[in-house]
């Protein structure tokens, strides 16, 4: 059966639909470090040690693979563990092109780890294909990007950059956290690897940390699983169960959060103390048309710029319903100060070039009633 997305969120693929021996509706948490053997080299269940594989984690990986249309999915203990693993595919001297606007933790990874390990990284505007193509050199091995990007919501044309990558024999790695597989499937658009911080929309309840790598290639999936098993940053059984439970409501959450975001973005755009609103769902957003051509929605991430730094700080200090916190994608609306919270390790000159200044705020719109979210922003913006 070719079942719809909402059904696969709950059940996974029919071919992979596994029930435990007791036919539990909620897939069990196999909270064990190891599994017994019948004889040397033989385990009837196929599982040996939870760092290598675990039934609960395997079930979650099957579900996420189904949602992304992937041949393989590997679950990690965090989004950064997943990103760190994908860069283990490369060798000293290899050159990687990254989008210049991306989560600050990735920049920190390259500054303190990748460079030490001999990788060479350039940060470029991946929305401009001519800039990307000009940066390709013989030792270039991959393009890594986010779309929409964090926090400036830049949109890269995945079909075009995939064609460019293939023409030069490069791997295309796409972080799909902001839109989730409900709104966007980069593998179908030519990506080789899709990254998710599962802590965000996939789990959706601000209660667990996780990460995922999905690929259309079983061979590449095996390489990533070997890295996962060897480096050990795997997702624990209970956390796997939490993410699996969260995914059951992914579709309905994404729809409602997007509806809320459209209203909130429209209200922000009209407020006299707001100078700019960066939301891909606004028709005037420069990436609106590209996103509409490669995704089924715009998500619920909004960045906006206040008139002064004092206004930004006042909003952060005065919000009551919205939470001032670093994260996104959960049922609760969260407001983040990127310059201080998510991007402090990005060099100041780069932050200023990107527009990540003391007037920029990032809002993850949750499931509260949109009138209540707007009312909280209104009172926080008042003198």
Question: What does this 3D model show about the protein?
Answer:
The mean pLDDT is 95. The protein has helices spanning 5-11, 55-68, 79-87, 104-114, 129-135, 158-167, 180-183, 218-231, 237-247, 250-270, 288-294, 309-318, 348-354, 370-381; strands spanning 72-76, 95-99, 120-124, 140-146, 171-175, 193-197, 211-215, 274-278, 301-306, 323-324, 334-336, 360-364. The chain is 38% helix and 15% strand. By secondary structure, the chain is an alpha/beta fold. The relative contact order is 0.13. It has two domains: 5-247, Type I PLP-dependent aspartate aminotransferase-like (Major domain) (Aspartate Aminotransferase, domain 2); 251-381, Alpha-Beta Complex (Aspartate Aminotransferase, domain 1). The chain has 14 helices and twelve strands. The chain has a seven-stranded mixed β-sheet, sandwiched between helices. Strands 8-9-12-11-10 form a five-stranded mixed β-sheet.
Oligomer type: single chain
* Quantity of strands, as a count: 12
Low-confidence stretches: none
Share of helical residues? 25-40%
The Rg value, from CA coordinates, equals 21 Å
* Spatial strand sequence of the major β-sheet: 1-7-6-5-4-2-3
The span between the termini is 58 Å
Kindly estimate the percentage of residues that lie in beta strands according to DSSP. Answer: 15-25%
H/E element sequence: HHEHEHEHEHEHEEHHHEHEHEEHEH
Characterize the biggest β-sheet. Answer: 7 strands, mixed
Overall 3D shape:
globular
Calculate the mean pLDDT score and round it.
95
CATH topology of the largest domain: Aspartate Aminotransferase, domain 2
What's the CATH C level of the largest domain?
Answer: Alpha Beta
């Amino acid at each position: 059966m070719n079942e719809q997305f909402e059904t696969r969120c709950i059940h996974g693929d029919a071919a992979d639909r596994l029930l435990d021996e007791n036919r539990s509706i909620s897939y069990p948490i196999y909270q064990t470090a190891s599994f017994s053997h019948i004889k040397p080299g033989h385990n009837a269940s196929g599982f040996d040690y939870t760092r290598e594989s675990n039934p609960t984690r395997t079930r979650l990986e099957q579900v996420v693979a189904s949602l992304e249309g992937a041949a393989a999915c590997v679950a990690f203990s965090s989004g950064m563990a997943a990103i760190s693993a994908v860069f283990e595919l490369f060798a000293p001297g290899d050159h990687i092109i990254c989008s210049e606007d991306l989560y600050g933790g990735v920049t920190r990874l390259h500054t303190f780890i990748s460079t030490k390990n001999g990788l060479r990284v350039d940060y470029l505007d991946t929305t401009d294909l001519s800039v990307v193509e000009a940066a390709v050199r013989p030792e270039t091995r991959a393009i890594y990007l986010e779309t929409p990007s964090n926090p400036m919501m830049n949109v890269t044309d995945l079909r075009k950059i995939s064609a460019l990558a293939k023409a030069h024999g490069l791997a295309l790695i796409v972080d799909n956290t902001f839109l989730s597989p409900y709104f966007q499937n980069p593998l179908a658009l030519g990506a080789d690897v899709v990254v998710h911080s599962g802590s965000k929309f996939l789990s959706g309840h601000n209660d667990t940390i996780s990460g995922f790598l999905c690929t259309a290639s079983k061979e590449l999936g095996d390489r990533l699983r070997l890295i996962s098993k060897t480096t050990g940053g795997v997702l624990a059984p209970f956390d796997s169960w939490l993410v699996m439970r969260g995914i059951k409501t992914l579709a309905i959450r994404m729809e409602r959060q997007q509806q809320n975001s459209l209203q909130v973005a429209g209200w922000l755009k009209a407020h006299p103390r707001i100078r700019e609103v960066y939301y891909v769902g606004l028709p005037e957003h420069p990436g609106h048309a590209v996103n509409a051509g490669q995704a089924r929605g715009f998500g619920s991430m909004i960045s906006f710029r206040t008139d002064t730094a004092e206004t930004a700080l006042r909003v952060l200090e005065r919000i009551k319903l919205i939470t001032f916190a670093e994260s996104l994608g959960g049922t609760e609306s969260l407001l983040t100060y990127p310059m201080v919270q998510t991007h402090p390790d990005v060099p100041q000159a780069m932050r200023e070039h990107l527009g990540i200044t003391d007037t920029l705020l990032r809002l993850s719109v949750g499931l509260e009633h949109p009138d209540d979210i707007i009312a909280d922003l209104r009172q926080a913006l008042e003198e």
